Each structure stands twice: as structure tokens, then as C-alpha cells.
Amino acid sequence: MLNLIAGLGFAAFLLGAILLRVTERRAPPSSRRRNVSVFIALFLSLGFASGLSQRDLWPFSHWPIVSLVARPYIVIPKLVGVDADGVEHDLDFRALQPLGVDELSPWLLYNFTRLPEDGQQRAAKYILERVEASRRRAAAGGRVGDFERYLGPFTAPYFLLHPRRWTSPERTPQRPFVRLRIYHLTWERGTGIIARDLEYETH
């Protein structure tokens, strides 16, 4: 039902945009202004409906990342790759594609820890395989993420502009990742990171 509502809202948005474009040159100025106002009202109504209901009505998002009052501290999951010597390497977040780090992080924080042990192993193994495949491509001079392999410079950036770490073969870890570690970082407002706790490590 929710998908149907979202689809109808998106269809109404597209239809309104098409009608606005079609009538733009034919209508008198007063009608054009009225049509634009109606279209803006439709756009805002769909956005408010998503926000007030706290339901995603794609492409109108309820943006839960900013829907609550900021707490004095927050817990942030952090993934690192580990080579055979036990050296940890920060990941280039593009290596997680097609997963997005901003969507993956809350899942790791709230859902991953609730999985049974074999479920955690399968999920962590999948992420490790994705990251290692991306590391090999980057170390060979290829593109890091899946999206960039197809869209190149036209790839849309993440909402939060995360750093691009593996920008050349020389800046890419050269040794294969054999393990994945998941840390929980505690960030305190006004101070920064105050704790780093190991939550999970692949076998």
C-alpha cells in the first residue's frame, strides 16, 4: 500500500511537471504564475506528507537523519579492512557500492547486532568480499565503486561528501583484506570521538 501511495505521488509530480512545461508558452502570464504556484504547492505537500508521516514516499524522503533533537553524544559504526599482518586500513566508502554508507551505517548499528551469529558472519563476509573486490580494482588503476564503473564522472555524489581515499593505485592498500572489523565510535558534542569499541570481527 505504501509503495502504491508513493507511486501515485510521484506520478502526480511528473504529470504536474509535464503539464507545467506544456502550458508554459501558451498560457498568459497570470495563468503561468498560478500554474507554477500550484506545482510548488503539490511538491511541498508531498514533501510534508513524507516528513510528517515519517514514511519514505520515494523520491520524497522523510530524512530521519535530521528529524530528532541532537543528543549530547551519538554512536557511529566504522568499518575497517585488515590485511594478513593485522594492519587496519580505512575504507574508501565507494568500495561498499552498491551499498551506500549512509544507509548501511544505521543498519549496522541497529540491525546487525540483532542477527544470529551465522547471520552476522554472512553479512560481514558479503561486505568484506565487496570491499576486497573494490580494493583490487583500485590497486590495478581501475575505478573504486560499482557506480563509477558505469557512469564515470557523471556519478552522483553521496549526500554527505565522504572523502575519496583510494584516488590512485599508490594511495590504495596493496595487501588483500583478509578480515573485516566493525567498531562503534562514541562521538560527544563539543569534544569529538571519546571511545572506540570493537563490535565485530570476521573469523
Compact overview of the structure:
By secondary structure, the protein is of the alpha+beta class. It has two domains: 2-66; 73-201, no CATH class.
Please provide a written account of the structure.
This protein has 203 residues and is an alpha+beta fold. The protein folds into two domains: 2-66; 73-201, no CATH class. It is 42% helix and 16% strand. A four-stranded antiparallel sheet has the order 2-1-3-4. A hairpin with a 3-residue loop joins strand 3 and strand 4 (192-201). Helix 1 runs antiparallel to helix 2 (29-53). The protein starts with a helix and ends with a strand.
Keywords:
elongated; 4-stranded antiparallel sheet; alpha+beta; 203 residues
Task: Compile the SSE list and pairings.
Elements lengths: L1 H21 L6 H25 L19 E10 L5 E3 L10 H10 L6 H23 L6 H6 L27 E10 L3 E10 L2
Antiparallel strand pairs: 1-2, 1-3, 3-4
Helix pairs in contact: 1-2
Please give the count of helices.
Answer: 5
Mind telling me the C-alpha Rg? Answer: 22 Å
Biggest sheet layout: 4 strands, antiparallel
Helix amount: 40-55%
User: Total number of β-strand segments?
Assistant: 4
Q: Tell me, rounded to a whole number, the average pLDDT.
A: 84
